[in-house]
Design brief:
This protein is α/β, with parallel strands linked by helices. It is 19% helix and 32% strand. Its cofactor is a divalent metal cation.
Length: 173
Amino acid sequence: MTTTLLLLADTHVPARARQLPDAVLRAVDDADLVIHAGDWIDIPTLDLLETRARRLCGVYGNNDGPELRARLPEVAHVTVEEVDIAVIHETGPATRREERMDAAFPVVDMLVFGHSHIPWDTVTPAGMRLLNPGSPTDRRRQPACTMMRAVIDGERVEVELIPVERPSRAQHD
């Protein structure tokens, strides 16, 4: 059996976009599990994903206020097939990230994180996969807004970085 995950972080609605892009919503509909690594900003986005996703695992980020922090943990854990996954918003600087995360999450197979808006896909010295899907609404200095799709089949994980086209502000004014 295979399980399809949609990895999101740093949606920043409504600060960076009035709503989630249509491509994100279609990907939510197609996923068996949606993982959101924080910086939602608003409650309606959490409510939307809770009702639309088949299954949702999320954490709060540094820009999330008390209402989101009351509903979401700082760190979440979920097991998908034979893969143990942790989710956190911030991992600190990129330098020595792999070594720090091995020490912080010694029994995790995959760590999904956000905060930087920079897509990241590496494997630590201990073999943990580190994934940051970037942001589907705020590309910062990246060439495009992004999200990730991961397909898990037993212990095997295949990951795809997906560019996301944001609707122009004029389309929603």
